[in-house]
Amino acid sequence: MTTFIMTGKYSAEAEKQISAGRTTKAIEIIQQCGGRLVAAYATLGKTDLLAITEFPDAGAVMKASIALTKALGISFASVPALKVEEFDRLVGGKS
User: Fold this and answer.
1) Which of 7, 12, 15, 52 has its CA 20 to 30 Å from the CA of residue 86?
2) Domain segments of the chain: what residues?
3) CA–CA separation, 16 vs 72, rounded Å?
4) Right CATH number for 2-91 from 2.70.98.10, 3.40.50.2000, 3.90.420.10, 3.30.70.920?
């Protein structure tokens, strides 16, 4: 599984419907797309949400992102992430 950082932004309409039930729905969508929610945070600033997720590949996270937008009115941007130790091994020349 690959770790993906997903940042989300509520639409104006989605802000009116914030609830714990929507969080449960988001987790279900992630799971239906083959992923797992590792952690989720509410944030302030350019984005409203930050989720650390795991998916088998980029296609699965893209599918989840579109499904989340359709179901919840929250648009997501997703980027792959490596643990720093793994990054150091890859670029630091140590294997």
Assistant:
1) 7
2) 2-91
3) 11
4) 3.30.70.920
> pTM (2 decimals)?
0.85
Per-residue pLDDT reduced to its tens digit, 65-91: 999 999 998 999 999 999 998 889 888
What are the distances in angstroms from CA 59 to CA 4, 11, 35, 56, 65?
12, 24, 11, 8, 10
